[in-house]
What we know:
Layout: H1 9-25, E1 48-57, E2 68-72, H2 87-95, H3 99-106, E3 111-116, E4 126-134, E5 142-148, E6 155-163, E7 172-177, E8 179-181, E9 216-217, E10 244-250
Antiparallel strand pairs: 1-4, 1-10, 2-3, 2-5, 5-6, 6-8, 7-10, 8-9
Helix pairs in contact: 2-3
Amino acid sequence: MTIRYLKTAASIALVATLAACSDQVNGDNIFGGELGVTPPPPPPPPVISTFQVTVSNLTNAQPMSPVAVFTHGMGFRVFEIGAPASTALEVMAEGGDNADLIAEANNDAVVLTTVGGGGPIPPGQNEVLSFEIEENDLADAYVTISTMLVNTNDAFTGVNGVALEGLTVGDVVSMRGVVYDAGTEADDEAAIYIPGPAGGGEGFNAARDDHVDAVTMHSGVVTMHDGLATSALTGQHKFDNPAIQVRIERIE
Length: 252
């Protein structure tokens, strides 16, 4: 005699349910992953620190070109005394254009932020800028600022590597910047080479070079009132050190 076992729909469903229960007992989720395991929470958002930078022009008749502000780690410098100026620094120091300096910095791995000024800073005036960085970066964060004295051939000023470590909300650090010579253009003070209002000249020109090829402390301008008949500058364009004051405040 042949005995036939008939599998009904109900019996098939029962077998499937028992198999699923067996999987769950073994710790497997039928929808994938381990049963009862909660995924880790997302990491908390970074804490952001906000700083305000005030750059004040201390000169009598030297407008400052739009400033460039860099926040960075160790190893970044816009210039070094005794070393040749980079082409980007030459462009800024001769013509007041900071675009190449900022673009170059944005490609540097140790640079955290860059900020460009909104326009020239007239004598006796100031500009306020701000930047944000993650609080985790503060222990190795520095600020560097550069700007050109536009009624000169290639004079610039700024501050190098001001440390932000240890500044809490409300803390302020202040310093002053002296004047440097980029060493990329002869200081003839001729109007055609002075980009500021005293000359209205062309500013940067890659073909000109005074062969110094090194950044030095600036010795000052001579002017027509000092006997340089071809100078576009007068006694009011003379400057003393320092040329700018920089104030950095942590506001958040």
